[in-house]
Amino acid sequence: MVDDNPVQAATRKAILTFSGNQVSVATNAQEALTLLENSDFAKNINLIITDHLMPHMNGPQFVARLRVQLPNVPVLVLSGLPDAEAEYDGMNILYRLKPLDPEELIGLAQSLPTSALGRTA
Predict the structure, then answer these.
(1) Tens digit of each residue's pLDDT (9 = 90 or more) over 73-104
(2) Contact yes or no for 106/63 (Cβ under 8 A)
(3) Helices (H) and strands (E) in the chain, counts
């Protein structure tokens, strides 16, 4: 999970951990990309959840760079901006508006890694 807001990151991590998921949190996009350079770490990633608005590197910039390292990993982008979804055209992501209901977050975390989103087969 990538989110520069510590309260939102901690809340989502608690929700997902409570539902049985293992969650790693990066406080910015560059930190996440650095973590993902470790192939042992990256091979265990089933889903990336990222915020749209972040300092230094926004969501579309992060996803574009992420796709170089992990072209097939499912990505869930969360944003409070309904018009920002168009910025991800062609990036094979799922876009949801915040706030996201905890049950929906859990459901997406369970279904996206096994869905066709981001998977080649």
Answers:
(1) 999 999 999 999 999 999 999 999 999 999 99
(2) no
(3) 5, 3
pLDDT value, residue 105: 97
What is the residue whose two structure tokens read 């975390």? 109
Environment class of residue 39 by beta-carbon count within 10 Å: exposed (0-12), middle (13-18) or buried (19+)?
exposed
- Per DSSP, the residues of 95-121 read EEESS--HHHHHHHHHHGGGSSTT---
Instruction: Let me know how long the chain is.
Output: 121
Provide the CA 117 distance to its chain's centre, in angstroms. Answer: 13
Q: Residue 72 carries which side chain, given as an amino acid letter?
A: N
Residues 55, 75 contacting (CB under 8 angstroms) = no
Q: What whole-number distance in Å separates Cα of residue 97 and Cα of residue 95?
A: 7
Report the amino acid identity of residue 66. Answer: L
pTM equals 0.92
User: Mind listing the domains of the chain with CATH numbers?
Assistant: 6-114 (3.40.50.2300)
Phi, psi at 6, each rounded to 5°: -65, -30
